[in-house]
Amino acid sequence: MRIYRTLDQIKESFPNACVTIGNFDGVHLGHQLLFTEVVGRSSRCEGTSVAVTFDPHPLQVLRPEGIKLISTCEQKAELIEHAGIDVLVIIPFSMKMAAITADSFVDDILLKTIGVRELVVGYDYAFGKGRAGNIDFLKKQGAEKEFSVTVVDAHYEDGMLVSSTKVHELVADGKMAYARKLLGRYYQIRGEVQRGKQRGGKEIGFPTANLSMDREDLIPKMGVYVCQVICFGKCYGGVLNIGVNPTFGEDRLVAETHIFDFKEDIYGKPIKVNLLRFLRSEKKFSGIKELSAQITRDVSEAKAILHKQHKELNLSCKEHFNQ
Fold it and tell me: Which of 32, 46, 48, 277 could bridge 226 with an S-S bond, Cβ 3.0-4.6 Å?
């Protein structure tokens, strides 16, 4: 997949461009339907499948309080590539971009720069100044300027509308099984392993790989999770605690993962952690002995869950490395 991070990088429009446009936060099943439609249409007309998105997310610019994102731009690009898209255009979003009218966006960006021949959008998509570029506007523009417009209907899983908003809600509530239904994969956090207090192995008996977390990011419900860890080209089981270590009187938010059957030095190395199931809320213990006993129980419960799901987890691991 070719990635263009500014419009200036596009020197000529794409042949028979079949385009979808959106923020695609989380790249959930609804987004994946858009990509499937675009890839199918581009194949039929021997054209180019193109996804257009924005970085930062427009709401991070337009709302002073920002927005908590499901996926980083890097992860979003990986998932879009996995969907089979030929070209990803990432438009830098700013107040200047926000002021562009819907007409100018169609004429200057979709038509002149990208060369849209077919446009695929979600049922509720709108863009341009004042969100004037709604579905009715696009259909009229398409009729006047000779590009087709296909609208993909809302998608539901188990009666839940598949949307980034709903995924946010489920992750914040620790409902990882439901979040997976909407995402089509496990919810994942990632980062480089940081040096912590190093109490896990020496004092508590359970060494951990620590990832720092920003309170401005989407934070899953604080507590302990069964997890799958992707590191050094392999997948491992584990238990993850997201919280502030109240037993030790700390308040720095951190994600601490005890990886099963793993003894490698991974300080400064990147890992990915899939959250499978919420086990319990974080709590303050009387001391290290009580905390260690609880972690022993957590590990036992997590291993039992992982054993039951081993076929599914093996498939998930293979899919990850085949992306």
Answer: 277
